[in-house]
């Protein structure tokens, strides 16, 4: 057996803000993908994945929810017959490795599943997000359900608020100089500790005010510019966002990248922001001149996501 492919995702804008109900924009990232496969002789990563699926099976079996039910018997049989999730999506990198796995399990084993082909009303999207949140909480302790939703639908998703999400049309890529790229920190980031740091910071009134005012407003402006194709305005807003993140989210930025971050803002060669919860993994970069950014960041591994 070999299941359909599910892709990685990139949250272009909205990290942490979406926890507090501001806007977000997530896009599928087709460079990385995963699929359910089966083997009689499991070794290495496939063996570990099979064991993880068994733990995930127990999590789903213990869920008390009226929202969703699964064909647990078939799921357990497939695990016992050597099923594993074959994935190129790096784990702990902020690009949705657990999201793709959750999407693949829902697709294969959910009873009365909402399919990608039907008319996806707002209610159906919210229901899917809620189901995925329940499923993915196994991996992160708390999950918005957004990563699996993005992977399952393979569409850009605009998060207006917790109760208002919709598929988004993003401008088609141009052959211009500008780009969105990933910068590899070569460190693993863990979601849960980073979210805990954020939640502790939210106890501070000044931090809360910054999130609800400066951070949310700047993020919303970036999303608006990106969706409308206002590239010039976008870079001004992304620069402001990069400064805000450097000032207020230092613990989420690996120490080795504080200077790199500052350098981008000082030279305007590129602007960096968090990709997911931070703490390692990928850092997201925006530049008006990709070649210039590549020269400035020649000591690091970059991956192209989108061209302006």
TrEMBL record:
It comes from the Bacteria. It holds the Pfam family GHMP_kinases_N. GO terms for molecular function: ATP binding; kinase activity. Residues 83-147 form the GHMP kinase N-terminal domain. Keywords: ATP-binding, Kinase, Nucleotide-binding, Transferase. Gene3D superfamilies: 3.30.230.10. This is Mevalonate kinase.
